[in-house]
Amino acid sequence: MDGQVTLLEGATLTVNCTYSATRYPTLFWYVQYPGEGPELLLKAMKANKGNNKGFEAAYNTEITSFHLEKASVQESDSAVYYCALSGTLTETAGGTEYKL
């Protein structure tokens, strides 16, 4: 977890997600906007990419990462972002709140 991060509108957003797993898990990014419940933003299975609403993430099995990126953030992107995984016996992931 990176904690709270503040960015200016138009800046590039990168939220790092690394994981530890015994196999190739399905990876997810969830977003939770203020006053709302979490919603699925991206989903990817072994070595592919996900994109939605200008956000994208590449599933990198070599360095076990699924970093979330957006080229130009807006105030409406202010939320808590969670990286999650499933389909493994041993799993870890985390989330970060970004104030934009």
Describe the 3D structure.
- The protein is mainly beta.
- The protein has one domain (5-99): Sandwich (Immunoglobulin-like), CATH 2.60.40.
- Helices cover 0% and strands 46% of the residues.
- It is built from no helices and eleven strands.
- It has strands at 5-6, 13-15, 20-21, 26-32, 39-44, 49-52, 55-58, 68-70, 79-86, 91-92, 95-99.
- Strands 1-11-9-4-5 form a five-stranded mixed beta sheet, with no helix packed on it. Strands 2-8-7-6 form a four-stranded antiparallel beta sheet, with no helix packed on it. Strands 3-10 form a two-stranded antiparallel ribbon.
- The chain is globular and about 35 Å long.
- The two termini are 17 Å apart.
- The model has no long low-confidence stretch (mean pLDDT 83).
Average pLDDT, rounded to a whole number, is 83
CATH topology: Immunoglobulin-like
Shape: globular
**Strand content of the residues, in percent?**
over 45%
Task: Work out the radius of gyration.
Answer: 13 Å
Q: Major sheet: size, sense and barrel closure?
A: 5 strands, mixed
Structural key phrases:
100 residues; mainly beta; Immunoglobulin-like; 4-stranded antiparallel sheet; 0% helix; globular
Question: Can you describe this structure in just a few lines?
Answer:
The chain is 0% helix and 46% strand. The chain has strands at residues 5-6, 13-15, 20-21, 26-32, 39-44, 49-52, 55-58, 68-70, 79-86, 91-92, 95-99.
